[in-house]
Structure to design on (204 residues):
């Protein structure tokens, strides 16, 4: 395995942290569905699973909107004010929609099981929201790279995906070099390093 520098090591650790958080979130949702299945029955569990899937679509869109905002904040030139306003409004809307799903899940637990189950669901969903906030922070620190689950990158990415990943990283470095944030020599060295790793089949 090729050696990695400090920046790449931090990025990999953030991706692993993000993967850990997503596994914990998935386990929390699965536990809620399982409890409903064992309690009221499969209909309540199926409804909960449907609501959770709908919420995930909102989360995926929100993550992409957040990535756009992060890209705008890092741009060398000032971002259009209307684009920033739209990004913030979309994030608030998607967050509200996700919370509406959480409320629906709590109400379902209340109707199907009772008050104690509703309180437990509310506490569990609040914990899930905390984990999602940590995911958003990890996304920014890892520059929105894919989560890692402890598997070698070579097992998770095809050659074309690995090449696209390298090109994205080099494009970010080129922007930094053009903005004067890193030297041209540092950019050239990074290009050589990433190309060698791609040939060797190591993770970019």
């Amino acid at each position: 395995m090729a050696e990695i520098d400090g920046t790449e090591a931090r990025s990999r650790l953030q991706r692993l942290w993000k993967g850990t958080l997503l596994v914990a979130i998935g386990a929390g949702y699965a536990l809620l569905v399982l409890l409903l299945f064992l309690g009221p029955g499969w209909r309540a569990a199926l409804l909960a699973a449907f609501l959770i899937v709908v919420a995930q679509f909102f989360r995926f869109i929100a993550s992409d909107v957040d990535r756009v905002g992060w890209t705008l904040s890092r741009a060398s030139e000032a971002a259009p004010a209307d684009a920033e306003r739209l990004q913030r409004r979309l994030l608030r809307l998607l967050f509200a929609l996700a919370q509406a799903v959480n409320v629906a899940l709590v109400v379902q637990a209340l109707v199907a099981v009772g008050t104690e189950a509703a309180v437990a669901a509310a506490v569990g969903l609040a914990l899930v929201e905390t984990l999602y906030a940590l995911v958003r922070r990890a996304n920014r620190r890892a520059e929105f790279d894919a989560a890692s689950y402890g598997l070698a990158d070579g097992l998770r990415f095809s050659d074309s995906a690995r090449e696209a990943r390298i090109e994205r990283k080099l494009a970010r470095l080129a922007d930094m070099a053009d903005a004067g944030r890193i030297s041209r020599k540092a950019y050239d060295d990074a290009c050589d390093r990433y190309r060698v790793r791609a040939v060797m089949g190591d993770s970019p």
